[in-house]
Amino acid sequence: MDDEEARTRLLDAAEELFYRHGIQAVGMDRIRTGSGVPLKRLYRIFPAKESLVTAYLERRDRRWTADLREAVTGAPEPVLAVFDWLAAWFSEPDFRGCAFLNAHGELGAAAPPVVHTHKAALHALLAELAPAPGLADQLLILAEGATTVAALNPGPEPAHRAREIAEVLLRAHRPS
């Protein structure tokens, strides 16, 4: 196995374990076991747990953001497509809430900067889609609130409710 394959296996194991059990609950030995990568190589690729956590979140951010962007591109009502995409995500069997909010909740100020850049990127996407200035702030609160509610009670319902509110906001901001 070359270093690229080892890195991928480590990130796959980290993502599954950190997302399911929490960052602080999972040690590097458990990542080693889950990935099948020897501990010496693990530490050569990721010298500290913090570097692995950052790489896991950066990779998740790229994939999550690309998936969401793809879902809204070309949608007849892109803002509402965000909430439709969230409903599908919340319905996935392994849904455990937002990995970035979970990381911030566990690590607080020690959370990697990608936590904040992820949220800023979501806000920027909503600002691109919103038909009026300032609407992105409200849409972000709806999306984040729905995600938090769904983390406690998985399923599409929080996204459906948030979508209904987004429809009201969109109607209020459309020219008459």
UniProtKB/TrEMBL annotation:
Pfam families: TetR_N (PF00440). Residues 4-64 form the HTH tetR-type domain. Residues 27-46 bind DNA. Keywords: DNA-binding, Transcription, Transcription regulation. InterPro entries: Homeodomain-like_sf, HTH_TetR, Tet_transcr_reg_TetR-rel_C_sf. This is AcrR family transcriptional regulator. It comes from Streptomyces avidinii.
